[in-house]
Amino acid sequence: MSKLRETLETGAFAVVVELKPPKGTAVADMLAPVNALKGRVAAFALPDNEHARMRLASVAAARLVQEAGGEPLVNLTCRDRNRLALESDLLGAAVLGLENLLLLSGDYVTLGDHPQAKPVYDADSVQLLQIVQGLMAGQDSAGQPLNGNPAFFPGAVAIPEADPLAPQLLKCAKKIEAGAQFLVTPPIFDLEKLRQFREHLPLNPVKLLAGLKVLGAEETALAAAGQWRKVYSLPPDLVSELAGKEPEEVLALGAAAAGRLLKQIKEEKLADGVYLKAKGRTDLLTKILETAGW
């Protein structure tokens, strides 16, 4: 059983840290948080060409994390592969001992650094969860038997601030029915919306990881200019606090704010854990944990 699965299933609070796979082959910076934090967090997440920007493959990055003594959480998107490639990569992850999965549809390619690339989306996130369940049961998506079954701990994404919320709750129910064992939210800054979303979740043992993010100067400037276009909102008081400050000061204040949110989420039991995004920087991640008293 994976450490992440054990942590969540025993009711302990899980901290997952997102790393930044490099745009190249130099992996020392990506692995630095693993070496510093592997005894303090449950898992390290490896994005799969996040925001449609090409980087080191998530499965390869996860294997490096595993070799460094960390617990990997492989992210896998539907955007870049048909179901043949998705299933092949899933089996590859399984034989490498990579059990934890976060399955996503993936941002559209026009938002990334290869806008001329052709998106695939042969499956959506619900269908990919179904494919994973089929593989664990011993057959591929074409109904053909496998020679050896993989074991996975699959999760999916949920959006508490979706408007309207009803379609999102329906999608979450479909993901849970398709086998999602945990849900990860985008970054949360409004805890009241997280509370409301949690109340609407099905009475199912699915676990919830609340996303937390360290804002940067560019993001703060967009929000201050009224140009924020994300699936999550930013509190005006936080934007006012960060706007106009030097980039490193923005990051330090943003990390402290994330730490306070982590502490409140844990104390109020608003989620079963958190998923931290802090530019892959050890210093910011450490500041978050220290602020939270972790």
Reconstruct the topology from this structure.
Layout: H1 3-9, E1 14-18, H2 28-37, E2 43-46, H3 58-67, E3 72-77, H4 83-95, E4 100-104, H5 125-137, E5 153-157, H6 166-177, E6 182-187, H7 191-200, E7 207-213, H8 217-224, H9 236-242, H10 247-268, E8 273-277, H11 282-291
Parallel strand pairs: 1-2, 1-8, 2-3, 3-4, 4-5, 5-6, 6-7, 7-8
Helix pairs in contact: 4-5, 8-9, 10-11
Characterise this structure.
The protein has 294 residues and is α/β, with parallel strands linked by helices. Helices cover 41% and strands 15% of the residues. It has helices at residues 3-9, 28-37, 58-67, 83-95, 125-137, 166-177, 191-200, 217-224, 236-242, 247-268, 282-291; strands at 14-18, 43-46, 72-77, 100-104, 153-157, 182-187, 207-213, 273-277. The protein has an 8-stranded parallel beta barrel, surrounded by 5 helices. Helix 8 packs across helix 9 and helix 10 (247-268) crosses helix 11. The longest helix has 22 residues, at 247-268. It is globular, with a radius of gyration of 18 Å.
